[in-house]
Specification:
165 residues, mainly beta, 0% helix, ten-stranded antiparallel sheet, 10 strands, elongated, single chain
Length: 165
């Protein structure tokens, strides 16, 4: 069984009509529960945490007064800590890896304004690149990911308050 908590506040400023720049922070905590029928220890949790900080550029194309399409290009620094469980049942051990690196993503979405200053957004994935290097850099294992993740399993909602709209 897996559980996840994610929060990603951001603040931005419109530099031109429909074009905003901003800063963002992100925190994700995930716990994976491992079950074993061969062990008295039936629920070992392996927590993983990721922290991100970066900048973004966002373009919004309004199709009506209340509905529009949004594209966001973001990137920045990330830090990841993973606790893992290994070994045979009854003799499980745990370890930890720490990684740091950078990320970039392109995320399309939609936005709806039920009232003039409040926008409700939805996205269904992104095109993303991530590079993480293990710390301390003993053998410098590097994890690089590039790919597209689209679908209902990637569905995210957000809310934005626009001061100047």
């Amino acid at each position: 069984m897996n559980s996840q908590f994610q929060i990603a506040p951001s603040v931005g400023y419109f530099v031109a009509d429909n074009l905003a720049v901003g800063l963002s922070l992100g925190y994700t905590a995930t716990k994976n529960t491992y079950n074993s029928t061969f062990s008295n220890n039936l629920s070992d949790l392996a927590p993983n945490t990721t922290f991100r900080s970066g900048a973004y550029v966002q373009y919004c194309k309004m199709l009506t007064d209340q509905f529009g399409l949004v594209g966001t290009l973001g990137g920045g620094y990330q830090y990841n800590r993973t606790t893992y469980i290994y070994g045979p049942a009854g003799n499980m051990n745990s370890g930890e890896t720490k990684q740091k690196g950078y990320y970039a993503s392109l995320t399309p979405g939609t936005i709806y304004f039920p009232v003039p200053k409040l926008g409700i957004s939805a996205t269904v994935g992104s095109l993303a690149y991530s590079r993480l290097k293990e710390t301390p850099t003993s053998g410098e294992p590097v994890t690089t990911d590039f790919g597209a993740s689209f679908g209902l399993s990637q569905l995210q909602f957000g809310g934005t308050y626009y001061f100047g709209r």
